């Protein structure tokens, strides 16, 4: 079929690699369900700078019926130099790109059979264009159902709690979820007088108003109660269940969606070669995602703690120290210092047989799937969490910024598939080497480690079932696809008439 006659889905993403990967992997899954060439996807991507090296192979290997339009970069130097948070930088820079998103969508609609618009959770304002253009509009939520439950509940929470959440004398109740400390809520809500918080609340209000639904990168079996809590408040049920602002939008659990496809064989191949030589389940994989950084003191303590644990480790993406945990999130690979020079004196020589440290990008999904890997020290970015679940690898939660502490609470206290340091890991204090070593041992050996591993293996099975042909997430996505496909035919017929 010519591309103009296929059913077309428009996506709007944001300038953050992990968000782009997630929404585009969703697109790949949609196409895979219908390998009869039914769908064509166009992803509109606001940009801040040129593509980082690690992300290039991902974009270059997309299937032919996924097309990306990179918008000209918006200026955001004023935001960077004002020292505003990562979330504000991201939010305001994409807002600046909205006129160009609108123009691109309009011209796409002129030439293609577009039936639905799906915007990343950071750009719910893009859905205004869906309304304007009279097409179905959805949010793609690349985070946990727990976070979505918090977002939908937050206008109520805002009214109920008058102090800063971290000073609240009780645990914070999120519908359908474990109760958590206020300090484990996302960064955006930590200072209620900030612009960050204001923008967060605004986004949450917009989620409530989404008409056609929110697609969540999670699966019912992992977050059953949270899913129930949201759907019980949904439009279809009608009744008010405990929340003054009920009538939530429909949600569609379609995950776990993780990075697939061939990674560049040149990137991080030394990690895989090194893993090939290690015993089964023996290695702790250490990574802080696409941009997390540690302070100099924390790098020292982590390194010495790994050494002290005597367990094997593979530490990738080591970056030069920075006291701000998200300092390099938008910088990508443009760093000048040699990060290995910031490790403690003699560390690399002393740990030669025990560990491997690289400053570059690793093929994370392949690493987690390698049989030598027995644990993952992770910053708890949602993609990393799902990749760990899909491969059944128990975690040590080391959250740094954004909603990572909330994810850490979910995997540690909720799902019990992770251990976590007692104190703060996001840079306000330092986790000392003795605690690091003790946690590594708790995770990699002994009774507790065994229990965690068993629970993770169960979760892994549920994750695999959810995306099987008749799995919960596959059925949900198939129904959506069916709806979009029939609308596509309908529009096409009308054009032909
Ligand atoms: N990633 C990778 N190699 C690395 C570091 C990260 O492939 O060396 C990938 C990882 O597999 C995940 C994404 O980058 O898909 C990071 O996303 P996440 O949500 O975990 O964290 P963020 O980067 O948004 O902080």
Automatic annotation (TrEMBL):
GO terms for molecular function: UDP-glycosyltransferase activity. Keywords: Glycosyltransferase, Transferase. InterPro entries: UDP_glucos_trans, UDP_glycos_trans_CS. CDD domains: GT1_Gtf-like. PROSITE patterns: UDPGT. It is an enzyme of class 2 (transferase). The keyword Kinase does not apply. Its EC number is 2.4.1.-. It comes from the Eukaryota. The keyword Hydrolase does not apply. PANTHER family: GLYCOSYLTRANSFERASE (PTHR48045:SF18), UDP-GLYCOSYLTRANSFERASE 72B1 (PTHR48045). Belongs to the UDP-glycosyltransferase family. This is Glycosyltransferase. It comes from Cajanus cajan (Pigeon pea). The lineage of its organism: Eukaryota, Viridiplantae, Streptophyta, Embryophyta, Tracheophyta.
